[in-house]
Amino acid sequence: MANVSVIGAGSWGTALAVVLQNNGHQVTIWSAIEEEIKMLREKREHVSKLPGVRLAEKTVFTTDLKEAVEGKNLLVLAVPSVFTRSTAKTMKEFVEERQLIVNVAKGIEEKTLMTLSDIIEEEIPQARVAVLSGPSHAEEVGKGLPTTCVAGARTREAAEYVQNIFMNDVFRVYTSPDMLGIELGGALKNVIALAAGMADGLGYGDNTKAALITRGITEIGRLALAMGAQYETLSGLTGIGDLIVTCASVHSRNRKAGMLIGQGKTMEEATQEVQMVVEGVYSAKAAIGLSEKYQVPMPIIEQVNQVLFFDKPVAEAVQELMLRDKKAEHEKMWEHKE
């Protein structure tokens, strides 16, 4: 049995706490919001974000970050990506040398274009950092529906430790050394999911969705390769797998926000109606920044930015994508043929 703290009491943090408690670990859940901790203590479930999913009586709830961090075998950092740096900065003084932190949020920091694991390593240099990601909606994980994820770390030892802590008969965990590829797939698929939702909001069909998913993973893969990640990662669970589930699922907050925008709502109206952090909105600008930095064309993500931040009509953005210059799907195949 391990002593594990989940830093962040949203739907994903709560769902992972359920996985951990079902595996027999002692779990502490931290939130900065006193009312949220009070509700969890009294109800033993997150009434608004994960209703019906019960937390064990022995689970500890706290707003004291020192209590949550000190003496723990593993820290699961589950705050929204926009709060990763500020939370890591506050945690730093309590984190022991080589204490393992596994980040489970998905995003790219807009100003620095850093991945979340890079941010944690910068703010807490004494820690070891890993990531856990994959096609895994909290609503299904909390109910114990079969799910697969990937644990990424700099060393096999750290990745396998995370694997052993989380894995059970309904939550399967693979390992990978490609932390960069895992995080790029997890962050950028949210932007493509916004596009998929916009298409749904316009009333487009399965053909459009399939095009967005396949061309979306092509854009993400090109960027990942340019940055030094492995393409195999993007063809796996944390790439195409995560993209499929986020573009297609009724649980996807990014798809829902995009759908509302496609139906005519502004970005602000859509995110307010979703009532949860829409990570793709924050990652969209960062994706364009990475596209420019590494000189990788990302036409879908570019059009999503135009809709989100420059009031471009969604139908016009789709038309521009359809009317782009003629291209081969894989130019190198023609080169080899000729």
Structure description:
With 338 residues, the chain is α/β, with parallel strands linked by helices. Helices cover 54% and strands 12% of the residues. The chain contains 17 helices and eight strands. The chain has an eight-stranded mixed β-sheet, sandwiched between helices. The N and C termini lie far apart (60 Å). The mean pLDDT is 94.
Shape: globular
Enumerate how many helices there are, as a single number: 17
Helix content: 40-55%
The profile of the biggest β sheet is: 8 strands, mixed
**Strand order across the largest sheet:** 3-2-1-4-5-6-7-8
Rg from Cα: 20 Å
Class derived from helix and strand content? alpha/beta
Q: What descriptive keywords fit this protein?
A:
338 residues; alpha/beta; 17 helices; 8 strands; 12% strand
Structure at a glance:
Helix content is 54%, strand content 12%. The protein is α/β, with parallel strands linked by helices and 338 residues long.
In terms of topology, how is this protein built?
Layout: E1 3-7, H1 11-22, E2 26-30, H2 34-43, E3 60-62, H3 65-69, E4 74-77, H4 84-91, E5 100-103, H5 116-123, E6 128-133, H6 138-142, E7 147-153, H7 156-166, E8 171-176, H8 179-201, H9 206-227, H10 231-234, H11 237-248, H12 253-262, H13 267-274, H14 279-293, H15 299-310, H16 314-322, H17 331-337
Parallel strand pairs: 1-2, 1-4, 2-3, 4-5, 5-6, 7-8
Antiparallel strand pairs: 6-7
